[in-house]
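Changelog-adjacent note: as of this version, every example in the card shows the full chain rather than a window. The one below runs 329 residues end to end.
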Amino acid sequence: IDIDATLSAPIVKPTGAAMSPDGVNNWNAVDNTLYLVQTVSSKISTGTIVVTSVGGSKIEIPADAGITVSPASSPHTTQEYTFQWAGTDATDLTEKEITVALKNRSDETKAENIKVKLLPNRLNNLQITNQSAGISLSSITATTATLTIPVIKDKQFTLTMDNYSKPTISKCPSWLENITPVSTRSIPESKTVSFTFKLIEDAVNFDDTQIVFTNVAGGTGMTVNITREFQAPAITATGTMAPSVNSLSGNSLHMYRVASGQQSKAQIKVYSLGGSTLITPGNWCYQRIVSTPNNYEKVYEIYWDGNTNDLNTAYNGSFYLKNVSDNNK
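Full-length structure tokens:
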């Protein structure tokens, strides 16, 4: 019996096999291209294709390609080949296209080329949009940026960036609420994604100063360092004024003397994101905290012990009301 085995060039099956990062690396049968995205130095970007070839197959990669394949050849009609690109933390990579030869192991004249594209993988084009007054983004690098925020009620902003897969927020200040609507993403092409944050008025503190975005696709992430601009406390009259002629006008408190055994009192409510502290002239006028309704308000009572012998004596003094988080405010 004579058997005429006609050999032909290897064929890559339309659907690829295991990929890592999964859902980002992929085989595109239309482009005849295997896409591999950059991963950080501790990881490896991999992509597997399935090749069919009567007579076996082999893979030839240019010496300077920067990728490897395993196995290099196979006698089997069907074989999975896994390409690997070692991870790197470099932030200046550009797209690289490599021509890879698929040959019939029994007749290398029967060959077909495919492409492997190596794609940079970082969080690109960081921008700020829809920001409240006074909020700005500056000093943007490949991996860091500086965000300036006045610490004021209802301030909010949106950060946008490009990546192959939607990043995750691995660190966020407790005083910022992530109010980003739920969205879906397509892959593998680079897409723009946005994150919207709103300042939490009743935050316990404003200590944390970083938003960290993790690149889910395995590449380098982005750290946004926050510069906080605290505000001077605001005061209003509230509660007890005794005698009733005591009053607050702007930042001037008018208190009248009383007889011995009594106290002249005035209550003020202080609004301050970041906390407040009140220092009074302690040798003749004192203060105590009456209540703390929430994390941004305190009610102080300023009092003056009466002295019948000093009813006609006038005193003037300075009260220092400061933001606990910034004593210059």
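Structural remarks: The two ends are 98 Å apart (CA to CA).
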